[in-house]
Amino acid sequence: MVQRLLAPGEIEALDHNAIPRLLLPQPRSLFAARAARLRQLAKNEIKGIPVGETLRGYLLLMAALVDAQAAVAHALPAETFALPDAADIDVSLEHNMPPLPVSGARPPSWRAVFDALLDQLDTLAEGQPQIAAVLAELRGLESAELEGCADAVLAELTDSVHPLHAPFVAAALQVMWTMRAGQLDAQRVQPLVTNTLCPVCGAHPVASVIRIGGQSQGYRYLQCSCCASEWHMVRVKCSCCEHTSRIAYQSLEPADASDAPESTSKANDPSKVARAETCDDCRTYRKIFNQEHDYNVEPLADDLASLALDLLVGEAGYARASGNPLLWFNAE
Question: Locate the FdhE N-terminal domain: which residues (predicted)?
Answer without folding.
Answer: 19-192
